[in-house]
Design a protein that fits this description.
Layout: E1 9-17, E2 20-27, E3 30-36, H1 64-68
Antiparallel strand pairs: 1-2, 2-3
């Protein structure tokens, strides 16, 4: 099941260094590997966002309840 938002989807594959992460991004049948900076937005509980900088639709901690709803 894919997330319900417009545009491509992405999944984190690993960290290259402190400022760069490797992601796979796809839209339909087109896949590509991309390097992105991590999102540095802190949550109120101190947990950092686990997505990339400039992501949509919200920060990872805002979606926790959606996954376990």
């Amino acid at each position: 099941m894919e997330a319900t938002h417009d545009g491509p989807h992405a999944d984190h594959l690993g960290d290259i260094d402190r400022d760069t992460q490797l992601w796979v991004q796809w839209s339909g049948a087109l896949y590509e590997f991309i390097r992105l900076a991590p999102c540095e937005a802190p949550a109120e509980d101190g947990d950092a966002c686990s997505l990339f900088d400039g992501h949509d639709p919200g920060h990872s901690w805002e979606m926790r309840d959606l996954l376990h709803g």
